Amino acid sequence: MAYDRWHKANPKPGEARCREHRKVPSAFHGQGKRWQARWRDETGQQHAKNFNRETEANNAERAFKVDLGRGSYTDPRAGRVLFRDCGERWRAAQVHRATTAAQVETHLRRHVYPTFGDRPLGSIRPSEIQAWVRGLEQNLAPSTIGVVYSFLAGIFRAAVRDRLIVASPCVDVRLPRPAPKRVEPLATARVEALIAAMPERYRALVVLAAGTGLRQGEAFGLELARVDFLRRTLEVRQQLVTMPGQGSYLAPPKTPASYRTIPLPQVVVDALAAHLATFPAVPVEITDATHKPAPKARTAALIFTGGAGRPLRRTRFSDVWRTAAKAAELADGATFHDLRHYYASLLIRHGESVKVVQKRLGHKSAVETLDTYSHLWPDSEDRTREAVDTALGRPAKATGAEAAP
After folding, report:
1. What is the mean pLDDT of residues 162-181?
2. What string of DSSP letters covers 353-368?
3. Sequence-distant (≥ 6) Cβ neighbours of residue 90 within 8 angstroms
4. DSSP per residue, 248-274
5. Residue 303 pLDDT level (bands cut at 50, 70, 90)
6. Distance CA 142, CA 140 (A)
7. Contact present, 182 and 262 (Cβ < 8 Å)
8. pLDDT over 90 at 73, yes or no
9. How does residue 231 score in pLDDT terms, banded at 50, 70 and 90?
10. How far is residue 382 from each of residues 362, 373, 394, measured CA to CA in Å?
């Protein structure tokens, strides 16, 4: 039942009454909204909200109690929590790889918090989010905008789950569509030119990537013990990660599907053997974050290291790559990942199925493989024509012959 803020519920005998309502006035008489709804949440804490009319207060009080009974109650004051505070709690709770965690922190700090960080959660409207997305188009690629938006939407979903707000404002927000991009694999002649242009220490690294499709981190983190020269196989069980301002360490592969065993072509076996004859795998002390439950320091015999016998750093190798790529006349923007595309194109060209390509590359699903490489599978127009002609062509001719006079 609504509480009358303007009048005392239990006046003392003889207290003067107001002329308007004929009740004993309280200290709040005539100040603010008269009627107050009161209720207690799941923890027993009392809450209150003021209204102009008694019926509004009664309806609100009943609604809050119904929501409490359903388990859908949201504290009206919870929406006052700043977006930045909610975002940082969300970020700390995510189970992300170190590289992804760094990406999340950077995108929130650079692109989200400057606009929404100091705003209460409940004050942010869908139209403001749409305007923010439009503003990002001035500086970010559509694919990057999609990534940043996914972090923003994730924070609002968490706020709804925690019942800080009733609904997320990320509704019907239109994102820019990335321009269609087709993978154009390197020509074999360009891969051979790249191998020749590489310093001797890194030639086998290029052969390995082109002949197995390893990601850069997987190739950098490859240990001698993971290569079976007799059976000609290679096990992917880790990758080398280098974070800004930190030392390199071994981490689990990108996804659970990335754990795989790859058959080694003879050309790769020969390249690795020649490399190890010249640059033996020297054991290095490194942190192994694949060890559960906590990372531990251990000795690892990495096949590819820098000149000082230390794990390869992406920044250092990038300088080597750019020089060799220019000498090999690769297209501008060619990266180590293009060797992975080259490997996939070889498998497709020689008739491997989608499932085999997926398995070799360590993709999460065949859909991911098809989305990336479907245009590389040979067109089957002739087989389509032949299938239809075989089924329908002959009966049609026979029918025509029977109908002839």
Report:
1. 88
2. -HHHHHHHHT-S-HHH
3. 154, 155, 158
4. -EEE--SSGGG-EEEEPPHHHHHHHHH
5. very high
6. 6
7. no
8. no
9. very high
10. 32, 21, 17
Contact 275, 281 (CB under 8 A): no
- Take residue 231 and report the two structure tokens written for it: 């059976």
Domain ranges of the chain: 3-73, 80-161, 188-376
- Return the half-sphere exposure (C-beta side, CA atoms, 13 A cut-off) of residue 249: 18
303-342: burial string, b at 16+ Cβ within 10 Å, e else:
bbbeeeebbbeeeebeebbeebbeebebeeebebebbbbb
Measured distance CA(235)–CA(296) in Å, rounded: 21
**Separation in Å, CA 65 to CA 1, 2, 51, 59:** 12, 13, 17, 10
C-alpha–C-alpha distance, residues 235 and 239, integer Å: 11
In this structure, the strands spanning 283-288 and 249-251 are parallel
State the Cα–Cα distance between residues 166 and 88, nearest whole angstrom: 20
Length of the chain (residues) = 405
- pLDDT tens per residue across span 340-394: 999 999 999 999 999 999 999 999 999 999 999 998 988 767 777 777 877 787 6
In 10 A of CB 264, how many CB atoms? 21
Q: Which residue has the tokens 């070799």?
A: 360
The CATH architecture to which 80-161 belongs is Orthogonal Bundle (1.10)
The pLDDT of residue 81? 85
Per-residue pLDDT tens digits for 288-299:
999 888 899 999
Mean pLDDT for all residues in the chain: 89
Model pTM score: 0.72
Q: Where are the alpha helices (DSSP H) in 198-265?
A: 200-212, 216-220
Task: Count the alpha carbons within 13 Å of 171 in the hemisphere toward its beta carbon.
Answer: 6
**Rounded Cα–Cα distance for residues 208 and 213 (Å):** 8
**CATH class belonging to 188-376:** mainly alpha
Helix (H, G, I), strand (E, B) or coil at 106: helix
173-216 per-position pLDDT tens digit: 999 998 878 899 999 999 999 999 999 999 999 999 999 999 99
**Bigger pLDDT: 362 vs 164:** 362
